[in-house]
Amino acid sequence: MSILLTGGAGYIGSHTAVAMTEAGYDIIIADSLQNSHPAVIDRIGEITGRKPLFYKADAGDAEALRRVFEENEIEGAVHFAGLKAVGESLRRPLKYYRGNLNPALTLLEIMREYDVKKLVFSSSATVYGEENPYPYTETMKTGSCASPYGWTKFMIEQIFSDAAKADDSLSVVLLRYFNVIGAHPGGLIGEDPQEITYNLMPLISRAAAGRTGKLTVFGGDYDTPDGTCRRDYLHVMDLAEGHVKALRYADGRSGAEAFNLGTGEPYSVLEIIAAFEKAAGVRVPYEIGPRRDGDLPEFWADPSKAERILKWKASRSLGEMCRDSWNWQRKNPDGYRGGEEDPE
Ligand code: UD1
Description:
The chain is an alpha/beta fold. It contains eleven helices and 13 strands. A seven-stranded parallel beta sheet has the order 3-2-1-4-5-6-11, with helices on both faces.
């Protein structure tokens, strides 16, 4: 019996593939490779000693996905496949609604055809929207999302929850991630944005490596302890282990249940920069610039439900998060494309 990871070649999917393989699961990855690289599969194999079975398949392509279910005995799925650039989703909303909802619906339909009853979904703290007080708890009303990307996470949570309501043998776990950073400590896998990135940690790493100019800190006049935004950053390997716990929890249950995965401790942008400089022993050139549209001053998780019920707690420190991000950047300055022949 195997666990299917849609989008399993991506940043969070690949780290989860490692954690699940190490926990004894047989993994199958289905990924369109639209925003990821095939080298990831070999590297997961290198880390774990067991290369996952790989299908180049878009989860929105029913025929391609059906083949995966037809050729394997699948006991559950973790759904990562989707688009995640918040800014792009504001400019191209239809791309995001089609690109994220289609795979979710298709996966659910094919799971039903093959009688697969366990599903873990890669959701986001963005579902808490812009109106809730922090820390966020799972009982808060979700919605009022700031972007089409956020709304797709909200909608997929709703679709999966409704499906679980209608089928009492279906068990769904919705994992609401906070700000995920870091990389596997060996430096073989990490975050490799194919397009321009706007997320803080890859931009810090690139600025530290001298590959970009100064980092712009978006706003220094927020009503926060040092004037910069605060977020709940967690290590991608802690997050990956959360998926193992979620999958175990889904076993033999019914209904849909949401869990926050965060540390519960906020850090400001300046604190992240300082921790990175200390862990990496390099300077991060930066300047304080104007606020970024749509940024909330601060938010973080109340992670106590995951601790109580899933028995999951983030254990890696901010220093480890920064060290591992830098290690990945240093060893793979061009991401997975490093060392490839230039096609020109
Ligand atoms: C956003 C999304 C979240 C998504 C996450 C990762 C929302 C509300 N949140 O979170 O759903 O999961 O991206 O894709 O849409 N910063 C700078 N300079 C930079 C870049 C970032 O100062 O060059 C600051 C931001 O102001 C923010 C923090 O760093 O305070 C983190 O930013 P980012 O990594 O983009 O994540 P979020 O916006 O928190």
